[in-house]
Design goal:
Blueprint: H1 3-15, H2 17-38, H3 43-73, H4 81-96, H5 115-137, H6 143-161, E1 168-169, E2 174-178, E3 181-186, E4 192-193, E5 201-202, H7 208-215, H8 219-232, H9 239-267, H10 269-279, H11 281-286, H12 291-314, E6 319-320, H13 328-340, H14 345-360, H15 362-373, H16 383-387, H17 396-404, H18 406-424
Antiparallel strand pairs: 1-4, 2-3, 5-6
Helix pairs in contact: 2-3, 2-14, 3-9, 3-12, 3-13, 3-14, 4-5, 4-6, 4-12, 5-12, 9-10, 10-12, 13-14
């Protein structure tokens, strides 16, 4: 076998999406592990860092894929992502929190239904609000749709903070009666229910990881595995660390399901119509497609996926508060999509992984490593005190101040990366990939009787 043949096979291997994803993830995880080893992290510290990294890769990967359905497939400029996330997790909390008797506690209760029911309800209500937003908003285009969606997300956040919805008394029986006929009757377990106002909600329902493992009949084997780790590797309460790693793996599995759903959607006739709307809605309309109905369906499906992403992101925490749903999360998801490239599901996930590992979690991880390895002392109180020692060639105060301000510095780094991408690679890493124009091979046979390459959507060569 010649060198050219080997090179050709390697090029073909790395063109495959699965290989590309594994290569990028392997590089990110290897960098984290090697950095932890170099700075003396023990096994518990390594597992904690890997758990945090996996969690954010899964979270941003899911949300970037959901946004890709709106923007990458359909061209819908939605910057209200965090609003649908908030609706999903708040509804899940209201449905699944255990009831609290009136006057018995400061925190409001919930209906006390199983967590699975709460998750389904959260996704359904997020989809319903997506429908309510889409009905009037999809008549708008580009910037106007963006204004409506970001206003919607802020309305959701301020509603969460409102005292009006902070707490309400639930009647003993809820009846749905139409024309004198009782269609539905429900006796809720809770006496009080509400959004909790500015204080948020305590998520004292079943841990989502435990609920999933019990549903799969794996809870007892999982506890046995935790006991094995405690006996042989981490003697001091390893369960929180293992929970974090396993929950991160669950999120990656959910990303895989998101990916399969959106890939099949993109290759279906429905997905091809969405891409036609993205390229030129007037032409798609002229060809007899009901573009409003297609856009409405895509928006509702994307809103449901964003609601599920919010549930998976925040349900593992002990509580939620309205400030968690500020617009910065929306812009983080947009940066992840821009890095990977809109229109590509693989690019969307890779963008989420790179954003989470390098831009979101990376600076904080570097800070933790340096603080664990060196005794740096207290940081200067302001920028002037940090810069002044540089005149005497003492960079330590400035470095300590920089590490202490890593959260603000992280936003600066994101802005610089975004500006660079816009100037040098606006399509992202895998954006505008050439797509097959038809599921049927339309190519002409080659001279040797073999079939040629299928036609590409832009008339160029396929990848």
């Amino acid at each position: 076998m010649s060198v050219d043949d080997v090179r050709g096979r390697l090029d073909g291997l790395f063109e495959r999406d699965v290989t590309l994803v594994l290569a990028v993830l392997g590089a990110i995880y290897l960098a984290y592990v090697l950095a932890g080893v170099a700075f003396g992290y023990g096994l518990r510290g390594q597992l904690n860092s890997i758990a945090n990294l996996t969690f954010y890769i899964g979270a941003f990967g899911m949300l970037a894929l959901a946004l890709n359905l709106h923007w990458g497939y359909t061209g819908l400029f939605n910057i209200g992502i965090v609003g649908f996330m908030g609706i999903g997790v708040y509804v899940t909390a209201l449905v699944s929190k255990p009831p609290v008797a009136e006057g018995g506690a400061a925190q409001v209760g919930g209906l006390g239904l199983p967590l699975v029911v709460g998750v389904v309800a959260g996704v359904a209500v997020a989809a319903l609000f997506g429908l309510l937003v889409a009905l009037p908003a999809l008549r708008l285009r580009a910037d106007y749709l963006a204004i409506v969606t970001v206003a919607f997300s802020e309305i959701v956040r301020f509603t969460m903070m409102s005292r009006t919805f902070q707490e309400a008394t639930v009647p003993d029986t809820i009846d749905l009666t139409v024309a004198g006929v009782r269609l539905f009757s429900f006796d809720p377990a809770a006496d009080t229910i509400g959004l909790g106002g500015g204080g948020g909600l305590i998520l004292n329902y079943t841990d989502p990881l435990e609920a999933l493992l019990r549903l799969l009949f794996l809870w007892e084997p999982y506890l046995g595995f935790v006991a094995f780790v405690e006996r042989n590797f981490i003697p001091n309460n390893p369960k929180p660390v293992i929970d974090g790693v396993v929950y991160g793996i669950v999120l990656l599995v959910c990303v895989g399901l998101f990916y399969l759903l959106l890939s099949r959607t993109g290759k279906s006739p429905f997905g091809r119509v969405l891409k036609a709307i993205r390229e030129d809605e007037d032409v798609a309309n002229a060809l007899g497609k009901d573009t409003d109905r297609f856009k409405l369906t895509a928006f509702v499906l994307g809103a449901a996926l964003m609601g599920l992403g919010g549930i998976l992101w925040y349900s593992g925490r002990g509580s939620i508060t309205p400030p968690s749903f500020r617009p910065n999360i929306t812009f983080f998801v947009w940066i992840a999509l821009i890095i990977g490239g809109a229109g590509s599901n693989t690019g969307s996930f890779l963008g989420g992984a790179i954003f989470a590992g390098v831009l979101y979690e990376g600076p904080r991880y570097v800070k933790n490593l340096v603080e664990a390895a060196f005794e740096l002392g207290d940081a200067p109180r302001n920028f002037g005190e940090a810069v002044a020692p540089l005149a005497s060639l003492d960079p330590v105060p400035f470095l300590v101040y920089t590490l202490d301000s890593v959260s603000q510095l992280r936003l600066v780094i994101m802005g610089v990366v975004l500006i660079w991408l816009m100037h040098n690679r606006p399509e992202g890493l895998l954006g505008h990939r050439k797509e097959t124009a038809s599921s049927v091979d339309l190519s002409r046979p080659g001279d040797d009787g073999s079939s040629g390459n299928p036609a590409a959507a832009d008339g160029g060569e396929t990848r």
